[in-house]
Design goal:
This protein is an alpha+beta fold. The chain has a single domain, classed as Mannose-Binding Protein A, Chain A. 20% of the residues lie in helices and 27% in strands. The chain has 3 helices and 6 strands. Strands 1-2-6 form a 3-stranded antiparallel β-sheet. Strands 3-4-5 form a 3-stranded antiparallel β-sheet, with helices on both faces. The chain is globular, with a radius of gyration of 14 Å. It starts with 6 loop residues before the first helix and ends in a 5-residue tail after the last strand. The relative contact order is 0.26.
């Protein structure tokens, strides 16, 4: 039985990174174009990945995570989270301001997909 990843482990969103504490490999894929929420969820699913939740995105922003070369692992823009408000709305997170809000799922925003490489689990 594998241990659940900590939020901090999910926040290392640059190239594949080996996490010493968890021994997991996390990969981030960012879509080349903005998408509606349903498209974002399906896009990530097609990569065998998922859209991060709002808590993960906030933690990434407030802890100031950087990639291996010191760069931010995200654009300073608005991204979809996996958290839904209701049938028509979902939360977005703005990496410019650190704020979140509810948006209509038909609007188009940036999409990041997180993938946990299960090949490294024993």
């Amino acid at each position: 039985m594998r241990k659940p990843l900590s939020t901090a482990a999910l926040l290392l969103l640059s190239l594949p990174l080996f996490l010493a504490a968890q021994s997991d490999v996390i990969r981030l894929h960012e879509a080349e174009r903005k998408m509606a929420w349903d498209q974002a969820v399906e896009y990530c699913r097609s990569l065998d990945a998922h859209v991060p939740d709002l808590r993960t995105m906030k933690d990434t922003y407030y802890r100031g995570y950087r990639g291996e070369r010191g760069e931010r692992p995200y654009h300073l823009d608005v991204y979809w989270s996996s958290d839904q408000f209701d049938i028509d709305g979902a939360y977005t997170f703005d990496f410019r301001s650190g704020l979140h809000q509810v948006e209509w799922k038909g609007n188009r925003f940036r999409v990041m997909c997180i993938q946990i490489d299960s090949a490294f689990y024993h």
